[in-house]
Specification:
Elements: E1 3-7, H1 16-23, H2 31-49, E2 56-62, E3 70-72, E4 78-87, E5 93-96, E6 101-104, E7 109-112, E8 127-133, H3 144-159, E9 165-166, E10 169-170, H4 175-181
Antiparallel strand pairs: 1-2, 2-8, 3-7, 4-5, 4-8, 6-7, 9-10
């Protein structure tokens, strides 16, 4: 089911100064381009790993409560469950206490007691769960390999402007970036 970004990260995992130092750029003419590449690299790293790097708020929607009473949350790492509600038949939201959930931060799971939660009145996206995800509020909270992947990807895109293709397909991630991301990837089954 879809996840909707409610609150974007307040900062990027690497600063403009950090990226410029890595790129060995000493002028300010490309600052806006480099800043955009940093943001793009963060988004790419987040998409590849299914993780939120800097603290973000997401809304998860579900059609029904799962039979096993467990909801896997992405993006990871899960920090908290902030709000839970079901949508009634008339379209209004009914909020309920989040203390009915056990939040497994390490596993990224929201667990609940079967039958203890109200059933949604809407068949599609009748359940909304607002979660906070991310390593923390500061760039230093993000694991260094992920920050290095953002530096490397920013540098790759800065040096190879435009689309890089092989035949008719986009070129894969640079090997160094892919290797840095591999231990952090959350695979879906």
């Amino acid at each position: 089911m879809p996840s909707i970004l409610l609150t974007a990260p307040a900062v990027e995992p690497i600063s403009l100064a950090d990226a410029k130092s890595y790129l060995r750029v000493e002028h300010d003419a490309d600052d806006s381009t480099i800043a955009a590449l940093i943001a793009g690299a963060r988004l790419h790293v987040e998409a590849q790993t299914r993780r939120a790097l800097i603290t973000q708020t997401w809304r998860l929607t579900r059609d029904a409560w799962p039979a096993d009473s467990r909801i896997a949350v992405t993006p990871l790492p899960l920090r908290s469950l902030d709000a839970a509600r079901v949508i009634r038949r008339d379209g209004t939201a009914q909020a309920f206490d989040v203390s009915g959930f056990a939040v497994d931060k390490a596993g990224g799971i929201l667990a609940f007691t079967a039958g203890a939660l109200p059933a949604p009145g809407r068949a599609v996206a009748g359940i909304e769960l607002d979660v906070e995800a991310g390593y923390g509020d500061a760039p230093s909270d993000v694991p260094e390999p992920l920050r290095q992947a953002i530096r490397a990807l920013t540098a790759h895109w800065y040096e190879n402007r435009g689309l890089t293709t092989i035949g008719h397909e986009l070129a894969p991630l640079p090997a160094t970036t892919a290797a840095l991301l591999a231990p952090y990837r959350v695979l879906s089954l």
